[in-house]
Amino acid sequence: MRPDTHPAPGFVRRRTATGRATSYRVGVSILWFRRDLRLDDHPALVAAVADGAPVVPLYVLDDALWPAASANRRSHLARSLAALDDATGGRLVVRRGDPREVVPALAREVGASEVHVSAGHEPAGRRRDRDVAARLAELDVRLVATGSPYAVSPGRVRTGGGTPYQVFTPFRRAWLDHGWRAPAPRPEVTWADVRSDGLPAVPATSADLPEAGEAAALARWREFLDDGLAGYGEARDRADLDGTSMLSVHLKWGEIHARTLLADLAAAQADGAPADDVATFRSELAWREFHADVLHHHPEASSESLRAVVPDDAWADGPDADAAFEAWARGRTGYPFVDAGMRQLLATGWMHNRVRMVVASFLVKDLHLPWQRGAAHFMAHLVDGDVPQNQLNWQWVAGTGRDAAPYFRVFNPVAQGLRFDPDGDYVRRWVPELRALRGKAVHEPWKHRADDAPDDLFAAADRSVEDDDPGPRRDADGSPASGPRHPDPYPAPIVDHAHERRVALDDFHRARGSADPDR
Ligand SMILES: Cc1cc2nc3c(=O)[nH]c(=O)nc-3n(C[C@H](O)[C@H](O)[C@H](O)COP(=O)(O)OP(=O)(O)OC[C@H]3O[C@@H](n4cnc5c(N)ncnc54)[C@H](O)[C@@H]3O)c2cc1C
Q1: Which GO terms describe its molecular function (predicted)?
Q2: Which of 316, 318, 354, 499 shows the greatest Cβ crowding within 10 Å of its Cβ?
Q3: Mutate to test the pocket of ligand 1, among 246, 251, 284 (most ligand atoms within 8 A of CB)
């Protein structure tokens, strides 16, 4: 027997005008999942069950977005939806089509009075939600937004004068002062049983992708709290170490919420985790929130530079520019740290943050290609590809963002490699042609080649690959197999960094009508 105070699922207890307690039937509500594929710390889920109503867990595979998303992101999403389906006892309702049609149709079908969501903040998501809300209103159904993918909703943190922050450091200070809610408790939910179009198939991809879903996110986070947080401040910049949390993909899909991370960080610090490391990690989360805030106020930043830094004629185009872009995208620029990063991206759908900065700087300032081209390539491969983070980090590197690295800060791809991959392990891991080179030499293979032995680097590299991989390398008579295992030898640098840096700085000063003071 249910105790008197707990109405049956689908019923809510209210007092009548005469004071008598009675149960009313409530309609089902819909929880429309988007970038919040979890059940823990989910304020919109709490709101959806508030009246004890059964909840229809809905995911809409948007016809306009699903085919356009990269295979890596579709793979992650498909696996995350499968995990969410498990977590809801197989009740996840997947419907295909335009949410503007699908959501109102489902609301009518199940007799829902409310559709709950976590607020969307990206430009396209906001437009979609406005349209869906208007159509639902025609059916007398409310679209209720509770919470967002951020600890503090974009647009909330303002200066004393009520204007948005333009610069990260004061934003972070105000964000910390603003604070955030405690994680939402996980409610008891009665999932409604409604027809689904079925989970999407997991598309094939050549990349080795991380596990998807809320349980994987929580497991990864706990592992990082135990083994990665202490020392994070030092290790996070080292490309050769596994020194970061690898949570970006889980945050992107909302498999874990930033609020949970912030609460756990505070608890870890109270338990003795180093305050500096905690502060550094919190600061990285603040960057994520800052970028979402900037995009909230400047939706155009997803495709347009927020400020011009060089004259329009500074950008390369035509066949040579296309060839340079291809070399960059395939990891064949002849700059090992850049190439390692681009190959890590192709192989895993992820790239270390330090290397993202270096390859982005290389595209914009060494190859003189617009950041949007690089950002599109990243979005096509990153499993954590996220419009505010990707576009605004690109704008940061390109010097076109609100609070960006100055344009004249040009990353030196060799010096960065030597500093953040000091023994060359990262390069050797992703650029097998260079495995024969020891230590730092991998960062300057052309120099090594000219300076001293082995004078035939590529023969040496081939031998090393043979050592690492005992696959069939010989013909039946024992002679070397025809065709090299790596058909393309490692390329010579496609540009001279020192020269291209000067060109970039000249362009920068040309735009200002000023002479380069270093000239
Ligand atoms: C050119 C470029 C493109 C990028 N594109 C994306 C993207 O599409 N999606 C994305 O999530 N991140 C992007 N980043 C930011 C950053 O590289 C990744 O968030 C980070 O590498 C993810 O690894 P992690 O989770 O192990 O990071 P950790 O070091 O463990 O950091 C913890 C969390 O803090 C946040 N964070 C860390 N660094 C940044 C940063 N620079 N900006 C914003 N948030 C940050 C992330 O949510 C990250 O998961 C980009 C950076 C650059 C320079």
Answers
A1: deoxyribodipyrimidine photo-lyase activity; DNA binding; FAD binding
A2: 354
A3: 284
Q: Determine the Cα–Cα distance for residues 215 and 495; give it in Å rounded to an integer.
A: 45
Kindly calculate the radius of gyration of the chain based on its CA atoms and give it in whole angstroms. Answer: 26
Q: Which residues make Cβ contacts (< 8 Å) with residue 57, sequence separation at least 6?
A: 31, 33, 84, 88, 91, 92, 93, 191
Ligand 1 atom 4: residue of nearest CA: 390
Task: For residue range 189-207, list pLDDT tens digits in order.
Answer: 999 999 999 999 999 999 9
355 neighbors 318 (Cβ within 8 angstroms): no
Note whether 141 and 163 are same-domain residues. Answer: no
Q: Which domain holds residue 287?
A: 150-185+212-297
Q: What is the pLDDT of residue 481?
A: 39
The secondary structure element, H or E, covering residue 23 is strand 21-25
Q: What is the pTM of this model?
A: 0.89
Last residue of a domain, which of 263, 297, 331?
Answer: 297
Count of structural domains within the chain: 3
Q: What is the CA(252)–ligand 1 centre distance, in A?
A: 10
CA neighbor of 144 nearest in space, from 262, 51, 258? 51
Q: Is residue 489 part of a domain?
A: no
* Residues 22 and 123 placed together within one structural domain of the fold: yes
ipTM: 0.99
| Cβ of residue 384 lying under 6 Å from some atom of ligand 1 | yes
| 476: pLDDT strictly greater than 50 | no
Say whether 56 sits in a helix, a strand or coil: strand
Is residue 415 situated within a structural domain? yes
* Percentage of residues in the chain having pLDDT higher than 90: 77
Distance (Å, whole) CA 435 – CA 467: 10
**Residue linked to tokens 């999407």:** 200
pLDDT band of residue 12 (cuts 50, 70, 90) is low
What does the mean pLDDT of the chain come to? 88
